[in-house]
Amino acid sequence: METKSAIAGLSALANDTRLAAFRLLVQAGPAGMAAGELARRLAVRPNTLTAALTILSHADLVVARRAGRSVIYAVRYETMRALLAFMTENCCAGSSA
Amino acid sequence: METKSAIAGLSALANDTRLAAFRLLVQAGPAGMAAGELARRLAVRPNTLTAALTILSHADLVVARRAGRSVIYAVRYETMRALLAFMTENCCAGSSA
DNA sequence: TCAATATTTCATATATTCTCGAAAAATGGA
DNA sequence: TCCATTTTTCGAGAATATATGAAATATTGA
Protein backbone atom coordinates (compact mmCIF):
# COMPACT_ATOMS: atom_id res chain seq x y z
CA MET A 1 0.00 0.00 0.00
CA GLU A 2 1.25 3.43 -0.87
CA THR A 3 1.58 6.27 1.57
CA LYS A 4 -1.20 8.18 -0.12
CA SER A 5 -3.65 5.31 0.28
CA ALA A 6 -2.58 4.77 3.85
CA ILE A 7 -3.22 8.39 4.73
CA ALA A 8 -6.62 8.23 3.04
CA GLY A 9 -7.48 5.19 5.14
CA LEU A 10 -6.19 6.64 8.39
CA SER A 11 -7.97 9.89 7.71
CA ALA A 12 -11.22 8.12 6.87
CA LEU A 13 -11.17 6.22 10.15
CA ALA A 14 -10.11 9.25 12.22
CA ASN A 15 -13.64 10.47 12.85
CA ASP A 16 -16.26 9.41 15.37
CA THR A 17 -19.10 8.85 12.95
CA ARG A 18 -16.99 7.12 10.33
CA LEU A 19 -15.18 4.87 12.79
CA ALA A 20 -18.46 3.91 14.44
CA ALA A 21 -20.01 3.15 11.05
CA PHE A 22 -17.01 1.10 10.03
CA ARG A 23 -17.13 -0.90 13.25
CA LEU A 24 -20.81 -1.66 12.76
CA LEU A 25 -20.04 -2.83 9.26
CA VAL A 26 -17.25 -5.03 10.55
CA GLN A 27 -19.72 -6.61 12.95
CA ALA A 28 -22.22 -7.03 10.13
CA GLY A 29 -19.67 -9.00 8.16
CA PRO A 30 -19.82 -9.71 4.43
CA ALA A 31 -23.61 -9.38 4.45
CA GLY A 32 -23.18 -5.70 5.17
CA MET A 33 -25.83 -3.31 6.36
CA ALA A 34 -28.26 -0.88 4.75
CA ALA A 35 -27.41 2.81 4.93
CA GLY A 36 -30.72 3.49 6.63
CA GLU A 37 -30.13 1.02 9.41
CA LEU A 38 -26.63 2.37 9.95
CA ALA A 39 -28.08 5.85 10.27
CA ARG A 40 -30.67 4.68 12.79
CA ARG A 41 -28.16 2.82 14.90
CA LEU A 42 -25.71 5.70 14.88
CA ALA A 43 -28.45 8.28 15.37
CA VAL A 44 -27.17 10.48 12.59
CA ARG A 45 -29.11 12.05 9.74
CA PRO A 46 -29.18 10.20 6.46
CA ASN A 47 -27.23 12.78 4.53
CA THR A 48 -24.60 12.97 7.24
CA LEU A 49 -24.19 9.22 7.02
CA THR A 50 -23.96 9.38 3.25
CA ALA A 51 -21.09 11.81 3.59
CA ALA A 52 -19.35 9.47 6.02
CA LEU A 53 -19.85 6.45 3.78
CA THR A 54 -18.65 8.36 0.75
CA ILE A 55 -15.37 9.12 2.47
CA LEU A 56 -14.98 5.50 3.58
CA SER A 57 -15.75 4.42 0.01
CA HIS A 58 -13.16 6.74 -1.47
CA ALA A 59 -10.62 5.22 0.88
CA ASP A 60 -11.80 1.84 -0.45
CA LEU A 61 -12.61 0.71 3.08
CA VAL A 62 -16.23 -0.07 2.23
CA VAL A 63 -18.15 -0.96 -0.88
CA ALA A 64 -21.80 -0.37 -1.76
CA ARG A 65 -24.34 -2.48 -3.59
CA ARG A 66 -27.97 -1.71 -4.22
CA ALA A 67 -30.68 -4.06 -3.01
CA GLY A 68 -34.11 -2.77 -3.92
CA ARG A 69 -34.66 0.57 -2.35
CA SER A 70 -31.78 0.09 0.07
CA VAL A 71 -28.08 0.47 -0.48
CA ILE A 72 -26.06 -2.10 1.38
CA TYR A 73 -22.57 -1.20 2.55
CA ALA A 74 -19.96 -3.78 3.43
CA VAL A 75 -16.38 -3.69 4.65
CA ARG A 76 -13.51 -4.26 2.23
CA TYR A 77 -11.34 -6.43 4.40
CA GLU A 78 -8.59 -6.44 1.83
CA THR A 79 -8.04 -2.72 2.23
CA MET A 80 -8.17 -2.86 6.00
CA ARG A 81 -5.61 -5.67 6.01
CA ALA A 82 -3.38 -3.67 3.70
CA LEU A 83 -3.66 -0.65 5.95
CA LEU A 84 -2.72 -2.65 9.02
CA ALA A 85 0.18 -4.17 7.13
CA PHE A 86 1.38 -0.73 6.12
CA MET A 87 1.27 0.50 9.68
CA THR A 88 3.04 -2.56 11.00
CA GLU A 89 5.78 -2.42 8.39
CA ASN A 90 6.34 1.31 8.26
CA CYS A 91 5.61 2.37 11.76
CA CYS A 92 6.76 -0.47 13.96
CA ALA A 93 10.14 -1.48 12.65
CA GLY A 94 12.50 -1.35 15.58
CA SER A 95 9.81 -2.25 18.03
CA SER A 96 11.02 -5.18 20.05
CA ALA A 97 7.68 -6.19 21.56
CA MET B 1 -7.28 1.65 24.12
CA GLU B 2 -10.35 3.81 24.08
CA THR B 3 -12.02 5.06 20.95
CA LYS B 4 -11.03 8.62 21.75
CA SER B 5 -7.35 7.74 21.96
CA ALA B 6 -7.56 5.64 18.82
CA ILE B 7 -9.05 8.53 16.87
CA ALA B 8 -6.36 10.85 18.20
CA GLY B 9 -3.71 8.40 17.01
CA LEU B 10 -5.27 7.81 13.63
CA SER B 11 -5.76 11.51 13.14
CA ALA B 12 -2.19 12.27 14.15
CA LEU B 13 -0.82 9.83 11.59
CA ALA B 14 -3.22 10.90 8.83
CA ASN B 15 -1.01 13.68 7.54
CA ASP B 16 1.97 13.65 5.19
CA THR B 17 4.36 15.57 7.39
CA ARG B 18 3.40 13.82 10.59
CA LEU B 19 3.46 10.34 9.09
CA ALA B 20 6.84 11.03 7.50
CA ALA B 21 8.20 12.35 10.79
CA PHE B 22 6.86 9.37 12.66
CA ARG B 23 8.42 6.95 10.19
CA LEU B 24 11.78 8.65 10.51
CA LEU B 25 11.51 8.36 14.27
CA VAL B 26 10.66 4.69 13.97
CA GLN B 27 13.81 4.23 11.91
CA ALA B 28 15.79 6.19 14.47
CA GLY B 29 14.69 3.79 17.17
CA PRO B 30 14.86 4.46 20.91
CA ALA B 31 17.74 6.90 20.42
CA GLY B 32 15.33 9.24 18.68
CA MET B 33 16.21 12.25 16.59
CA ALA B 34 16.58 15.98 17.17
CA ALA B 35 13.77 18.22 15.99
CA GLY B 36 16.17 20.17 13.83
CA GLU B 37 17.44 17.12 11.99
CA LEU B 38 13.88 15.94 11.42
CA ALA B 39 13.03 19.33 9.94
CA ARG B 40 16.06 19.22 7.65
CA ARG B 41 15.32 15.71 6.43
CA LEU B 42 11.67 16.48 5.84
CA ALA B 43 12.43 19.88 4.35
CA VAL B 44 9.84 21.63 6.48
CA ARG B 45 10.19 24.78 8.48
CA PRO B 46 11.02 24.41 12.18
CA ASN B 47 7.74 25.80 13.42
CA THR B 48 5.78 23.57 11.07
CA LEU B 49 7.64 20.57 12.42
CA THR B 50 7.01 21.68 15.99
CA ALA B 51 3.30 21.75 15.23
CA ALA B 52 3.49 18.25 13.78
CA LEU B 53 5.44 16.91 16.75
CA THR B 54 3.06 18.57 19.19
CA ILE B 55 0.15 16.72 17.63
CA LEU B 56 2.04 13.43 17.69
CA SER B 57 2.94 14.12 21.32
CA HIS B 58 -0.65 14.79 22.31
CA ALA B 59 -1.58 11.48 20.76
CA ASP B 60 1.19 10.01 22.92
CA LEU B 61 2.85 8.57 19.81
CA VAL B 62 6.15 10.34 20.51
CA VAL B 63 7.91 11.69 23.53
CA ALA B 64 10.42 14.53 23.82
CA ARG B 65 13.54 14.96 25.92
CA ARG B 66 15.97 17.83 25.94
CA ALA B 67 19.65 17.31 25.21
CA GLY B 68 21.56 20.54 25.37
CA ARG B 69 20.20 22.92 22.77
CA SER B 70 18.42 20.16 20.95
CA VAL B 71 15.15 18.44 21.74
CA ILE B 72 15.18 14.76 20.94
CA TYR B 73 11.97 13.07 19.91
CA ALA B 74 11.42 9.33 20.09
CA VAL B 75 8.60 6.96 19.26
CA ARG B 76 6.37 5.59 22.00
CA TYR B 77 6.08 2.02 20.79
CA GLU B 78 3.60 1.18 23.51
CA THR B 79 1.04 3.57 22.08
CA MET B 80 1.60 2.42 18.53
CA ARG B 81 1.14 -1.17 19.58
CA ALA B 82 -2.05 -0.29 21.41
CA LEU B 83 -3.35 1.53 18.35
CA LEU B 84 -2.63 -1.45 16.11
CA ALA B 85 -4.31 -3.73 18.64
CA PHE B 86 -7.37 -1.48 18.70
CA MET B 87 -7.64 -1.54 14.95
CA THR B 88 -7.18 -5.29 14.75
CA GLU B 89 -9.74 -5.99 17.46
CA ASN B 90 -12.35 -3.44 16.54
CA CYS B 91 -12.02 -3.22 12.83
CA CYS B 92 -11.10 -6.71 11.69
CA ALA B 93 -13.38 -9.03 13.60
CA GLY B 94 -15.11 -11.17 11.01
CA SER B 95 -12.19 -11.02 8.67
CA SER B 96 -11.34 -14.57 7.73
CA ALA B 97 -7.99 -13.91 6.12
C1' DT C 1 -49.18 7.10 -13.04
C1' DC C 2 -49.06 8.04 -8.18
C1' DA C 3 -47.49 7.59 -3.58
C1' DA C 4 -44.29 5.76 -0.19
C1' DT C 5 -39.65 4.47 1.02
C1' DA C 6 -34.62 4.93 0.81
C1' DT C 7 -30.66 7.35 -0.34
C1' DT C 8 -28.04 10.97 -2.39
C1' DT C 9 -26.96 15.65 -4.02
C1' DC C 10 -26.63 20.42 -3.35
C1' DA C 11 -25.71 24.79 -1.16
C1' DT C 12 -24.39 26.75 2.94
C1' DA C 13 -22.73 27.95 7.41
C1' DT C 14 -19.68 26.79 10.92
C1' DA C 15 -15.61 24.81 12.70
C1' DT C 16 -11.24 22.93 12.37
C1' DT C 17 -6.76 22.22 10.31
C1' DC C 18 -2.61 23.65 8.18
C1' DT C 19 1.21 26.49 7.11
C1' DC C 20 3.65 30.49 7.55
C1' DG C 21 6.54 34.79 9.15
C1' DA C 22 8.04 36.97 13.03
C1' DA C 23 9.21 37.04 17.58
C1' DA C 24 10.24 34.81 21.93
C1' DA C 25 12.41 31.35 24.93
C1' DA C 26 16.07 27.95 26.20
C1' DT C 27 20.78 26.47 26.04
C1' DG C 28 25.87 26.56 25.64
C1' DG C 29 30.19 28.71 24.73
C1' DA C 30 33.35 32.82 24.10
C1' DT D 1 27.27 39.28 29.60
C1' DC D 2 26.83 38.70 24.71
C1' DC D 3 26.13 35.96 20.79
C1' DA D 4 24.96 31.90 18.05
C1' DT D 5 22.14 27.84 17.86
C1' DT D 6 17.89 25.38 18.53
C1' DT D 7 13.19 25.08 19.31
C1' DT D 8 8.76 26.89 20.50
C1' DT D 9 5.00 30.28 20.72
C1' DC D 10 2.01 33.49 18.68
C1' DG D 11 -1.20 35.50 15.38
C1' DA D 12 -3.09 35.47 10.89
C1' DG D 13 -4.80 33.71 6.68
C1' DA D 14 -5.99 30.07 3.46
C1' DA D 15 -7.65 25.69 2.93
C1' DT D 16 -10.25 21.83 4.34
C1' DA D 17 -13.69 19.30 7.02
C1' DT D 18 -18.23 18.83 9.09
C1' DA D 19 -23.13 18.78 9.67
C1' DT D 20 -27.34 20.48 8.12
C1' DG D 21 -32.07 21.55 5.63
C1' DA D 22 -34.10 21.23 1.45
C1' DA D 23 -34.54 19.25 -2.80
C1' DA D 24 -33.61 15.64 -6.10
C1' DT D 25 -33.03 10.81 -7.50
C1' DA D 26 -33.99 5.76 -7.45
C1' DT D 27 -36.91 1.95 -6.41
C1' DT D 28 -41.11 -0.62 -5.39
C1' DG D 29 -45.86 -1.60 -5.27
C1' DA D 30 -50.80 -0.11 -5.64
Task: Describe what you observe in this structure.
Two copies of one chain form a homodimer. With 97 residues, the first copy, chain A, is an alpha+beta fold. The first copy, chain A, has one domain (3-90): Winged helix-like DNA-binding domain superfamily/Winged helix DNA-binding domain (Arc Repressor Mutant, subunit A), CATH 1.10.10. In chain A, 62% of the residues lie in helices and 14% in strands. The first copy, chain A, is built from five helices and three strands. Chain A has helices spanning 3-13, 16-28, 35-42, 46-58, 77-91; strands at 33-34, 62-67, 70-75. The first copy, chain A, has a three-stranded antiparallel β-sheet. The interface between A and B is medium-sized, with 33 and 32 residues. Chain A binds a DNA duplex (30 and 30 nucleotides) through residues 15, 17, 34-36, 39, 44-51, 54-55, 66, 68-71.
Uncertain regions spanning at least 5 consecutive residues of chain A:
none
Strand portion of chain A: 5-15%
How far apart the termini of chain A lie comes to 24 Å
What is the number of helical segments of chain A per DSSP (H or I, 4+ residues)? 5
Specify the helix fraction band of chain A: 55-70%
Count of strand segments of chain A? 3
Oligomer: homodimer
* Shape, per Cα inertia axes of chain A: elongated
What is the C-alpha radius of gyration of chain A, as a whole number of Å?
A: 14 Å
The structure class of chain A reads alpha+beta
How many strands, what sense, and barrel or not for the largest sheet of chain A? 3 strands, antiparallel
CATH 2nd-level architecture of chain A: Orthogonal Bundle
Q: Strand order within the widest sheet of chain A?
A: 1-3-2
Number of domains of chain A: 1
Mean pLDDT of chain A: 93
- What is the chain-wise order of helices and strands of chain A? HHEHHEEH
Instruction: Identify the CATH class of chain A.
Output: Mainly Alpha
